[in-house]
Amino acid sequence: MAHLSYVNVFARDVVALSGFYSEVFGFPEIEAIRSPIFRGIDAGGTAIGFNALDAYELLKLQDFADTKGVKFLLNIDVDTVDEVDAMVPKAVEKGATLIKAPYRTYYDWYQAVLLDPEGNVFRINKMLD
Known about the structure:
The chain is an alpha/beta fold. It is about 25% helix and about 35% strand. It contains 3 helices and 7 strands; from the N terminus they run E-H-E-E-H-E-H-E-E-E. A 4-stranded mixed sheet has the order 4-7-6-5, with helices on one face. Strands 1-3-2 form a 3-stranded mixed sheet. A hairpin with a 4-residue loop joins strand 2 (about 40) and strand 3. It is globular and about 45 Å long.
């Protein structure tokens, strides 16, 4: 049976960007897979990988390296509404940009929308009961 092992993000600075997610969410680095152009963090059940821009060429994706705009959305779930509220200012303090403050969605989630320090969009979520 297939399963999602990693979501990889291309990053200008793999150390800084992986460090951002580790510091805000407490995700530990997977040191066994560290390389000069890659960092991985354990996001609880899956991992987030951070590839340096050199990986575009390694993967034969150099023709797509200039892609602009929002192309993916990381969703990070927490256990309580209070955790959403606490993590938003922590993320902003570490360099995130708040796009939409925590709110209750029409599909009954409590979430905030942010951009990480490199401009990738992510949400901090709590599904309401």
